[in-house]
Every structure is written in C-alpha cells, then in structure tokens.
Amino acid sequence: MSKYVGAVDQGTTSTRFMVFDHEGNVIAIHQMEHEQIYPKPGWVEHDPMEVWARTQDVMSEALKKAGLTPENLAAIGVTNQRETTVVWDKNTGKPYYNAIVWQDTRTDKICNELAADGGQDRFREKVGLPLATYFSGPKIKWILDNVEGVRAAAERGDALFGNMDTWVIWNLTGGPNGGAHVTDVTNASRTMLMNLKTLDWDEDMMKALDVPRSMLPEIRPSSDPAIYGTWNGVPVSGDLGDQQAATVGQACFEPGEAKNTYGTGCFMIMNTGAEIVPSKSGLLTTLCYKFGDAPAVYALEGSIAITGALVQWLRDNLKFFDFSHHIEDYAKAVPDSGGIYIVPAFSGLFAPYWQSDARGVIVGLTRFITKNHISRAALEATAYQTREVLEAMEKDSGVSLKALKVDGGMVYNDLLMQFQSDILNVPVVRPVVAETTALGAAYAAGLAVGYWDNLDDLRANWQMAKTWEPQMDEATRAKLYKGWLKAVQRSMHWLDE
Known about the structure:
Blueprint: E1 4-10, E2 14-20, E3 26-33, E4 45-46, H1 48-66, E5 73-80, E6 85-89, E7 99-100, H2 108-115, H3 124-127, H4 136-146, H5 150-156, E8 159-163, H6 164-172, E9 182-184, H7 185-188, E10 194-195, E11 200-201, H8 203-209, E12 218-220, E13 229-231, E14 234-241, H9 242-249, E15 258-262, E16 266-273, E17 284-289, E18 297-304, H10 308-316, H11 327-332, E19 341-343, E20 361-363, H12 371-397, E21 404-407, H13 414-424, E22 428-431, H14 436-448, H15 455-461, E23 464-468, H16 474-491
Parallel strand pairs: 1-5, 5-14, 9-12, 15-21, 21-22
Antiparallel strand pairs: 1-2, 2-3, 4-7, 6-8, 10-11, 13-14, 15-16, 16-18, 17-18, 19-20, 22-23
C-alpha cells in the first residue's frame, strides 16, 4: 500500500488539506473558504466551529479525490495562521467567543497600558516581540477581561487557550474525549508568553498579561517522534506556524537562508541557526523550528499585515473585479501606477514600524488615475513593503541576500514578481511547489515518523520553477522607493487615541 503524508493548512481566509508523496509532489488538495467577521472597525473574527467543520470537510474531500483512505497516510502535520486566538470549554469543546484574528486591533489599549511602563520593547529581550496588537497574549487577556464567565472558567481549569494549530490538533485527536492540548515552539513564540531561551511559558509574562497557566497548551517540538495523538489511527506528529512551515517547505535549513511568503499578508523569515538574534530594526526574533531532540533553530521575521488582503479588498469591497487573479490584467494595461501609492495600513503598520495608530492611505491622486493605476499600485505596495523588511533583515543579520525564495498565492502574478525583483535589485526565485506552507507541515510530520530520514531528503526535493531578474535602472528604483517612504509617513499617527 502506497503511503503519503497529509497536511492541514488552516489559513486566514480558507482551510485546505494537501497530500504529498515522498518527492514532495502534490497528490491531492481540497480547499474551502470560511467567513470573515467584522463586528466593528479594526475587529476581525472567525467562527472556530466553522473552521473545524471546514477542516473535516477538506480532509475527507481531498482523500476522496485521490481515492485514498486514512490508512494511506503515514502521518499528518498541521500548519496555521499564527496569533489567531481561541478560548474554549474543554468539557463541551465549544468556544466561549469567536476566534480573534491576528489582524484584529482591539487590544491596542491593553498594549498601550503595558507599554506605559517600560515602552513598546519592554518584553522584547525575553520574548523577541514588541508590544503590539498582532500577538496572542493580549487577545487572551481581552477575552478573559471582557467575555462573561471566562476568567472564572479559566480559574476552575475548564477554559483552554490555543492558536489555531492547538484548536485543530485538539479536535483532530479527540476533542473533549482526550484531545491533545499542545502547541509547538513556533506558535508558542507568537503568544508573548514563551521565553525564547527556556522554550517554556514564562512566569513574569503570564503575570503581566494576567493569564493563568492552566489555560496554556503543552509546548512540544515542531516535529515530534512522540506524536501528539492520532486521527483515525494516523499519527498527528507535525505542527508549525504557517510562516515557519513555509521556511521548512523552502528547505531554508542553513543560517542566512530566507524566504518570503505572499498571502493575506507577507512574511519574510531568515534562519539564524541556534543563535537568538535580537532585532534593532523592527523585526521579530522568533523560532524557526525544533525537530525532535535536536536544538531549536531561531529566526528573524518581518511581518507585513496586508498584501493579498489588499487585492481582496479591491475585489470584495470596491468590486473592481470578480476574481483576484484579474488584478494582473488591469495592472498590465498601464506602464506604471501614474505616481500614486497605496499604503494598506488597515490594521496599522507591522514591521519595521509597529505603528498601530496608522491607517490606509492612497496618495498622489489626480484626474488621470484609473482603476488600472490603482490595481498596479496595490501590487507594487506588496513589493515596497517587502523591500523595507529585507533592508531591516540585512541590517540585523549582517547577511546580504543574494536571491529571494518566494511562495504563496501571489507568486503566480508575473507583474508583481518582476516588480519585486526590480525594486529589490536581486533575483526572485519560485520553486516548483509554491504552496510550501502545507509542504513544510508535511515534512515536519513525515520526519517524526521516519517517512523522510533527514534534512538532506527534503533539500533534494526542492526544485526551481522560475526566476525573475532585475531589469530596472538604479535611478528609477531609487526615485520610486523614495516616493513610497514618503507615502508611508502620510499613513502614520492617523488615530488620535
């Protein structure tokens, strides 16, 4: 009987299940979207029960498409939108409140109050993160403080917290009937509650955020030979936050290797090896992965909140086009953006600024501008934001990137990838399997059960599909980027509170 490895990829706008063979080829895939809930400006939620229902649907449909059964799977890995926070009742499996999504800004007041004593970088040395609405810890505190009965439930030991990986794994492995309440080091490193050195929940951080330890999952390796539990007899043995999973899927196993994932947001991660590299340039110090008993591997990350989500906004809110991929046709109809810039600070600015009081702007508008120029400017915004992060990364690490490995849904947009290469002045490289997030989760799960023997097996699977080389002259590049930096300044400090 042929054996494969499956991966649940629980993303911000959809959930998919993918099945891979030993060479890393895609055998089956099924994907379903879930509702985006916006109760107030700046608030973003998901229904955890809907996400779990979608997870079950995509798993059964993907297997059905390929004529497979659970017995054909050697292992299952899980990867997830990080920082999205769920608190649920361990007895019933029902959430006390909707999942608060990573883009949500309602915890601004909590973050500001904590920053009043010691500044935004008060906890950075311990947890690698600035105080920002992005991370899970303040979201847990908001639920405990604002949803009736949850703090009492937490004190009784009935309330469990998890990022989406923990929620999915708990349900996969039994839910109220003995489900594994676990997370891995990469997801734990996004909560503001894990100490980077000890890789355990930090007493001082739990106290500062007023989060009881009883709610928190057990922190396990990203690839765990001891396995977390089973689904229909299949070991569930891999768990990685989505961006770390993409880094593994891109085989960035050496210090200095980096990738950029283009999805709802954009996330660049550089492997820094066993060394914890503190950032002085607005990046996050985070975990890259931990495989079994081997030492943990660390990373620097630049997180951009809104990239693909800007395309969705043009599609859904402004009705510019029916399908996201149509943006390329409109953008190609003009030679440039006509002098406009879009800074999509819908959830404030993430790396390298961490300005939660920023909001989105379109600058440089004249009567000349059409929807084609706006479409082009939306794509270019992704490339400019990536350059800012790359420059910060080179500054912190002392490593100059020779090429950028890219993955995610937007990398099939040739216009964007060419402009990205032009504005960075380095080659941009897309692998054969561009959905590397699910692949990385599959790799972590498969390594744990011996489906793959070692990292060399995974490196051997990586194949280049396409490279874009820079074609822009230096004067144009400098002029365009200068305009972008000016536009970013216009978006800052928009909110008074």
